[in-house]
Amino acid sequence: MSWYKARAIYNGGGRFELLYDRQTASGKDAQPLVDWLNNTAYKIMRKYLIKEGIEGSSDAKFEVAEGDMHLSASPNASYGYLYIRAWTNGSEQDMEDASTIGMTPLAPIFVISKSSTDTYFAG
After folding, report:
1. Which residues, other chains included, contact 8 with Cβ-Cβ below 8 Å and sequence gap of 6+?
2. Are 61 and 94 in contact (CB under 8 A)?
3. What does DSSP assign to residue 83?
């Protein structure tokens, strides 16, 4: 299991700035997770934030999943930050270890179909 956490600057409008010293990735082979975030998940999240008009004062949560990759993010009504966490599925022990650092997986609201890159609402 691999995981990633970040706190980004967020003032609404779908734009967020990832700060190099407010990101961490860990676990076995975290690079595929980071690549998925950069090439797929962040693009979907940005479109969702814009479409839904999510502002920094919101406590709305966003989740997206593709296969074993998961992303969850929320401004947590912080008026300026976007809290991001991502993880890959792992063994039960990996999941227990991850839950101790706040990485417990949630059910995604967007799921990327295995047959295409289209997204659909899952709940």
Report:
1. 16, 17, 18, 19, 22, 81, 82, 84
2. no
3. E
Tokens of 26: 């860990």
pTM, rounded to two decimals: 0.75
25-50 pLDDT tens trace: 988 888 999 999 999 999 999 999 99
Question: What is the gyration radius of the CA atoms in the chain, in angstroms?
Answer: 14
> Distance between CA atoms of 65 and 104, rounded to whole angstroms?
14
Query: For residue range 62-78, what is the model confidence (pLDDT) as tens digits?
Result: 999 888 899 999 999 99
Locus of tokens 């950069």: 38
